[in-house]
Amino acid sequence: MKQFLLTMAGVFAGLVLFFVGVPFVALVMIAGAAHPSGTANNTVLSLDLRKDLTDQEPQNPFAAFSGRSMAVTTVADVLHRAETDTRVKALFVRLPEGGVTPGEADELRLAFKRFRAAGKPVIVHSQGLYPSGAITSTYMLGASADQFWMQPGAPFQATGLATQDVFFKRLFDKYGVKPDFQQRYEYKNAINGYLYDDYTPAHREGELSWMGSIYQSTVAAAAADRRQSPATLKALIEAGPYDAAQAQAKGLIDRLGQVREAQAEALRRAGPGAKLVDIDDYQAANPRLDGGLNKPVVAVVNAEGDIMTGSNSAGLGSQTINSDDVADALYAAADDSQVKAIVLRLNSPGGSDTASEQILAAVRAAKAKKPVVVSMGAYGASGGYWISSEASAIVAEPTTLTGSIGVFGGKLAIGQTLAHFGVDLRQLSVGGGYANADDPAQPFTPQQQAAFSAAIDRVYDGFVSRVATGRHLPPARVREIARGRVWTGLQAKQLGLVDEVGGFYQALDKAKALAGLAGQDVRLKTVTARRSPFEALQRMFGVSESSLRTLEAAVSVLGDSHARMLLDQASEARVRASPGGGLVLAPLPRF
To answer: How many helices (H) and strands (E) does the chain have?
Structure first.
């Protein structure tokens, strides 16, 4: 009977997988058919930055069907390959009307400049630059092109950098909410909105410091690309806003015209019979082959999002850094005898200290075997800096937000607030006096406050100790530049918190140099927790190998070679899966 039930369960699961999986395979085949079969001579790549941007490819294997997003590192990789593709002659870019995150703009600007250095022009078009927190970075990105076009009559409102914070103290006072938090120290401002009704001196100083650094960096980069002095460009920008014609008259942009006219210019530069090809289609039609098997290997480990413990077992949630997954990837790369160095691509504002410590332990273990270089995207702060602190080297974008060496914690006591509405919170506990410390009805008792404060101190002291060890700095110096303060990549370089300023390819060069591979061609191998669609379905439904074979048989009936290839890849992925957490060592690089 037990075997019968197991068999029936397998059949049922196989049927579920069949009815979900086969339509998915059909969608994949349809999507593949929509891509051009090849790349024509005189191709102009088209890049639309109005899509949502992420730093890295999402872990969700179904992300391609869930929305219009684009990974900055993927764009950089595709453009890097296109530099040597003789069929690709130019790049056409549509800028967003809002802001591109400064760190993302830095990485894309470097990609544009490498593309131009290969003798291939970049034409950008904007339908307007509207006020937003990072609009100056968008302008910087446009300024790095050969020609910056703008639609006639469109606004040019890139006049500076702004941010906004919300303070709840007066609302909390009115309704009896008691914020009971601690922070280490005065620059750890994430909870200031709960505690105050305005900026504290340290809060104001810290934010204006990193904002000023980003603003100066973006203006200086744009000025260099526009062949102007930073002071001149800064004065021109701050005298705005303008319309497109005024911006052109002042030398802030190059040409006025509609999108079609800017596209026609890019096609003209590409030569007779030139065609516009979307960068996604180019990538699909020209996958990077895992060639050069005799070349030294550099592993790339991806980590983006908030840091938390555990594993994103199905890979279907939001973009997060799960400590089991990233640690396993680092251990796998360290144990791979082919891998000579590791680049950890990081984009995170922080998260759990225990999860960060688990990943740092993996970094430490990997570093004992081979160089580990961290490449920071837009963020590498707080827990993101914790996991980076003991790497062989850290490379950050000039505008990366990093540091934030500090900690905070606590709770909102809302018992008095709810009582006004006739809601009473009651809690029972047994054990020591700290057992009900998380009671949301009331603030900490004095004893709980003291215990919690001691715990916060231990975390902070541990953070300082790890930074001092990893960065070879006296603990007293780390305490001086820590205190929860956020620094940009440029500032962090001056303070000794990062080694170099640059993007992914600068980090790759650093890893190669540390591994004794400077100047050599290497093969990249992405080690990631990303799972194939079939693995994700298998985890979603808890199905077995026999269920997957049911799907394989169904696809065989379909008789489609492309689907057969996808299933072969899924089978290979299962063979490569780590028993510890479904880790996949994907041979095809993502950068």
So the answer is: 22, 23
Q: What is the DSSP letter of 65?
A: G
Say if CB 417 and CB 176 are below 8 A apart.
yes
> Collapsing DSSP states into helix, strand and coil, what is residue 426?
coil
CATH code: domain 38-159+240-285 is 3.90.226.10
- Whether cis (ω within 30° of 0) applies to the bond prior to 242 is no
Q: Could you report the per-residue pLDDT of 137-162, keeping only the tens digit for each?
A: 999 999 999 999 999 999 999 999 99
- Give one word for 27, left, alpha or beta, with left for phi > 0 and alpha for psi -120 to 50: alpha
Cα dihedral 360, 362, 363, 367 in deg (nearest 10): 140
Structure tokens at 80: 């890097």
* Euclidean distance between CA atoms 365 and 372, whole angstroms: 10
Give helix 2-34 / helix 545-558 axis angle, nearest 10°.
40
Residue ranges matching CATH 3.90.226.10 in the chain: 38-159+240-285
Three-state DSSP class for residue 5:
helix
- Alpha carbons 396 and 394: distance in angstroms, whole number: 7
Neighbours of 217 (CB within 10 A): 24
Q: Which of 7, 24, 13 is nearest to 570 (CA)?
A: 24
Q: Round the average pLDDT of the chain to a whole number and report it.
A: 85
Taking only the tens place, the pLDDT of each residue in 203-214 is 999 999 999 999
Tokens 């413990």 correspond to: 309
Q: Check whether 390 has a pLDDT greater than 60.
A: yes
Asked if residues 129 and 166 have their Cβ atoms less than 8 Å apart, the reply is no
pLDDT digits (tens, 9 = 90+) for 441-464: 999 999 999 999 999 999 999 999
Report CA torsion sign: 433, 438, 441, 444: positive
Question: Which pair of structure tokens corresponds to residue 160?
Answer: 């500076």
Joined tokens for residue 565: 């290839």
Instruction: Give one DSSP letter per residue of 158-222, joined into a string.
Output: -----------HHHHHHHT-EEEEEEESTT--TTHHHH-SS--HHHHHHHHHHHHHHHHHHHHHH
What would the two tokens of residue 96 be?
A: 């967003």
Return the HEC string of 357-414: HHHHHHHHHHHCCCCEEEEEEEEEECHHHHHHCCCCEEEECCCCEEECCCEEEEEEEC
Strands 523-528, 584-586: pairing is antiparallel
